[in-house]
Amino acid sequence: MAAKFNAIVIHPDDNVATVTEAVPDGGSIYAPGLALTARGEIPALHKVAIRRIAQGDPVFKYGQFIGAASVDIESGQWVHLHNFQAEGK
To answer: Of 3, 6, 71, which Cα lies nearest the Cα of 42?
Structure first.
């Protein structure tokens, strides 16, 4: 049986996905060509790192620069105000 997709990745340059439903710590995150394990709870419609993002590195969503990592972010971690500085903030 195929896995149910619960994340959206739009552009090949994206380093975050958007989850379509809440994902518990240790839960699975799937999108076409992507399978991750959540490192902590991720609320519905929030961003998750799909690969490691080093502190200061740009964050791309939908092929667009949206800000930078304020700390190192590991694959599978929630990307939000605690580890991300949005562009213009």
So the answer is: 6
Q: Is residue 1 part of a domain?
A: no
Cα 38 versus chain centre, distance = 10
Cross-sheet strand order for the sheet of 64-69? 58-61, 64-69, 84-86
φ/ψ of 50, rounded to 5, equals -100, -5
Q: Which domain holds residue 39?
A: 7-86
Instruction: Assess contact for 76 and 49: CB atoms under 8 A.
Output: yes
User: Would you say the C-alpha torsion 66, 70, 76, 78 has a positive or negative sign?
Assistant: negative
- pTM listed for this prediction: 0.92
> Residue 31: which CATH number?
2.30.130.110
pLDDT averages per 10-residue partition of the chain, 89 residues: 85 97 98 96 98 97 96 98 85
